[in-house]
């Protein structure tokens, strides 16, 4: 394990920490950005960034509020704006990622996200459009940032969730489910959950996400962070996907 030197990027008056791993022989046309999950940081990719940097320019970034990035106080929706405070949201972080890609990476990129980093990657892809070459979701989580909404979550889904997790561990069944789910109609239904207002759920957005859906891979026995728990297997799968789609 090695941790790469941190750099700083100025965004919306905040300091954002990021790092880059690459070898002199790296293919210059492959760019990867690693997006961590809630409560983590770019160092959570400690077993992945250098491996991926062997064949790409591999970036990792601290989301605003995490790691070495600025950590302004959180504001709730009903609270007035005040100095050194901000209303955290998936849209805010997605804007951070898409702007970083445009200002720092400056070329088409693969987005790799774990947990809520996957949700953020999907939202960032909407802005990046053709400048997003592909999205890799590692145990992607669709989570609410509002405890009140969380308490009101569907009781039936709470009961079914353990069953669904068991089903998904069976590769044959999972691939069947994935094939059926990887269609515009199902993607629209999922977006309706991620976009409660329904705003901007259009054919363009659905096409952006649909064209990136390629495959489903399962690492048996791994938990919510397989990239750190089973890095060799995860790195191999990421590499395979990128080589297939570059």
What's the mean pLDDT score? 81
**N-to-C SSE series?**
EEEHEEEHEHEHHHHHHH
Mass-distribution shape = globular
The profile of the biggest β sheet is: 6 strands, mixed
How much strand? 15-25%
- Cα(first) to Cα(last) distance is 27 Å
Number of helices: 10
**CATH structural fold name:** Rossmann fold
Number of self-contained structural domains: 1
Strand order of the largest sheet: 1-2-4-3-7-8
Unreliable sequence segments: 143-157, 163-174
User: What is the name of the CATH superfamily?
Assistant: Alpha/Beta hydrolase fold, catalytic domain
Write up what this structure looks like.
The chain has about 250 residues and is α/β, with parallel strands linked by helices. The chain has one domain: Alpha/Beta hydrolase fold, catalytic domain (Rossmann fold), CATH 3.40.50. The strands form two sheets. It has a six-stranded mixed beta sheet, with helices on both faces. Strands 5-6 form a two-stranded parallel sheet. Strand 3, helix 1 and strand 4 form a beta-alpha-beta unit. The longest helix is centred in the middle third of the chain and has 16 residues. About 10% of the residues have low confidence.
Gist of the model:
41% of the residues lie in helices and 17% in strands. It is α/β, with parallel strands linked by helices and 246 residues long.
Task: Annotate the secondary structure layout.
Blueprint: E1 6-11, E2 14-21, E3 31-35, H1 49-52, E4 57-61, E5 73-74, E6 85-86, H2 90-105, E7 109-114, H3 116-128, E8 132-138, H4 147-151, H5 155-168, H6 171-181, H7 184-194, H8 203-210, H9 226-229, H10 231-245
Parallel strand pairs: 3-4, 3-7, 5-6, 7-8
Antiparallel strand pairs: 1-2, 2-4
């Amino acid at each position: 394990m090695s941790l790469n030197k941190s750099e700083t990027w100025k965004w919306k008056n905040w300091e954002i920490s990021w790092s880059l791993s690459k070898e002199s022989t790296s293919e210059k046309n492959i760019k990867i950005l690693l997006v961590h999950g809630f409560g983590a940081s770019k160092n959570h990719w400690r077993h992945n960034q250098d491996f991926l940097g062997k064949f790409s320019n591999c970036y990792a970034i601290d989301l605003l509020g995490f790691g070495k990035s600025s950590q302004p106080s959180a504001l709730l929706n009903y609270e007035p704006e005040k100095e050194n405070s901000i209303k955290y949201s998936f849209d805010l972080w997605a804007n951070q990622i898409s702007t970083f890609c445009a200002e720092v990476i400056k070329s088409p990129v693969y987005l790799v996200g774990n947990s809520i980093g996957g949700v953020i990657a999907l939202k960032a892809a909407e802005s990046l459009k053709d400048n997003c070459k592909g999205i890799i979701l590692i145990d992607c989580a669709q989570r609410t940032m509002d405890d009140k909404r969380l308490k009101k979550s569907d009781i039936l889904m709470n009961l079914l969730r353990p069953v669904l997790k068991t089903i998904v561990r069976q590769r044959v069944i999972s691939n069947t489910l994935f094939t059926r789910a990887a269609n515009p109609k199902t993607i629209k239904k999922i977006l309706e959950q991620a976009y409660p207002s329904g705003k901007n759920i259009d054919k363009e957005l659905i096409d952006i996400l649909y064209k990136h859906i390629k495959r489903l891979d399962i690492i048996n026995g791994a938990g919510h962070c397989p990239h750190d728990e089973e890095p060799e297997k995860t790195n191999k799968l990421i590499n395979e996907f990128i080589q297939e789609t570059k």
